[in-house]
Amino acid sequence: MNYEEKTMKSEKVYKGKIVNLRIDTVELPDKKYSKREIVEHPGSVGIIPITDDNCMVLVKQFRKPVEKNLLEIPAGKIEINEEPRQTALRELEEETGYISNNLEYLFEFYTSPGFSNEKMYLFIATELLEGEADPENDEYIENVKIKIEDLVDMVDKGEINDSKTIIGIFYAERYINQKK
Amino acid sequence: MNYEEKTMKSEKVYKGKIVNLRIDTVELPDKKYSKREIVEHPGSVGIIPITDDNCMVLVKQFRKPVEKNLLEIPAGKIEINEEPRQTALRELEEETGYISNNLEYLFEFYTSPGFSNEKMYLFIATELLEGEADPENDEYIENVKIKIEDLVDMVDKGEINDSKTIIGIFYAERYINQKK
C-alpha cells in the first residue's frame, strides 16, 4: 500500500520568523476532499553530548509555548545555507560551550508529522572539550551535566518532557551499555 | 535559575480544525521584547502495543506535511471531554483493531516545545486481543506487526522517521530486556 494525498489547493495563511502555516485541500483515495493544516519549519538538529565519564550535557531553558523550563539536549534550527553537521557543531558550542572532536550523524525523524514538516537530524557528540557557552541574543540557557543512568530514571519518573531528549537519553543508555 | 517570559501581547492568527496559531510578544529577562510563534494543539496520546511474541503493532499512513508514508505507533488527538487513557484505548482499537487488557500510562512529553504546546501522553499496551480496525473517515491506515529487535535495527538504519515511534521502540527494547 502506498497512499498519497494529491494537493487540489494550497493556501498560505501565515509567514513567520521560524514557522509558516498553510492549509492544503487534498484528495483522499475515495476521491473525497479533506483539509490539512501544515506548519512549515526549516528543519533542525539535536545533539547527544556524551562525556568520558558517562554523563550528558543538557540545557535548561524556558519554552514559551508550554510555559515551562525544560531540560533538553542541545538543539537548534538549521540556518539558510547550513549543512546539518555545521548546525550541530555550532549549536553545541553556542548552547553548551563544549567542542566535540567526534561528531557522528545518527538518524533523522519528524517531530510531529501529523501537522508539521519539521525534520530533526540527530547527532552524537563525544570526545568533548569544555569551553564557554555563547547563546544567541534571545536565548537564556543554563547548562547541566547529569549521569546517563540518572537521566534514564528521570525519564521513567516523568521528569524529562521533551521528545528529542527522551530519544537522546535512551540512545545514550544503549551507547554506554555497548561500550561495556 | 527559573526564567520566564511574560506575555506583553498575544495575537491569534489562525483558528483551525486541529491547530491554532498565535503570536506572543514576550519580555525577556533583559527587558527586551521578542516574538514567539506558538502552534496550539489539544494534545495527543501514543500507544506502544507489544504482543506476547515480542512484536509491536505499527500503523503505516500517508502524512501530508512530509509527503510520505510513515511507520508509526498508533496515536491520536485527545477529543473534547476525553481522558488520555480513553483516547489511548479508542485509538488503539480504531487504528489497529487490537484491544488491550493491560494499558499502562508511562510518561508524557512535548513533541516540539520550541514552537508548539502539543503534549503527548505515552502508554504501553500488552495482553492484546486481535480484532478489526475501524479508522476514521479521512484516515487510510495499514497495520504492520514487526519484531521489536528488527524495529531497533530499522531505527539505527534510519528507516523509522517519527519521534514518538523511536521513543516507543527504544522503550519496548528495554521492556523486553527487563522481562528476560
Description:
By secondary structure, chain A is α+β, with helices and mostly antiparallel strands. Chain A has 2 domains: 6-40; 44-102 and 122-179, Nucleoside Triphosphate Pyrophosphohydrolase (Alpha-Beta Complex), CATH 3.90.79.10. In chain A, 22% of the residues lie in helices and 44% in strands. Chain A has helices spanning 84-96, 148-156, 163-179; strands at residues 6-15, 20-27, 33-40, 44-49, 55-63, 68-72, 75-77, 99-110, 119-129, 141-147. In chain A, the strands form 3 sheets. Chain A has a 4-stranded mixed sheet with strand order 7-4-9-8, with helices on both faces. In chain A, strands 1-2-3 form a 3-stranded antiparallel sheet, with no helix packed on it. In chain A, strands 6-5-10 form a 3-stranded antiparallel sheet. In chain A, α2 (148-156) packs across α3. The mean pLDDT of chain A is 95. The interface between A and B is large, with 72 and 72 residues.
Q: SSE layout and pairings?
A:
Two copies of one chain form a homodimer.
Chain A: E1 6-15, E2 20-27, E3 33-40, E4 44-49, E5 55-63, E6 68-72, E7 75-77, H1 84-96, E8 99-110, E9 119-129, E10 141-147, H2 148-156, H3 163-179
Helix pairs in contact in A: 2-3
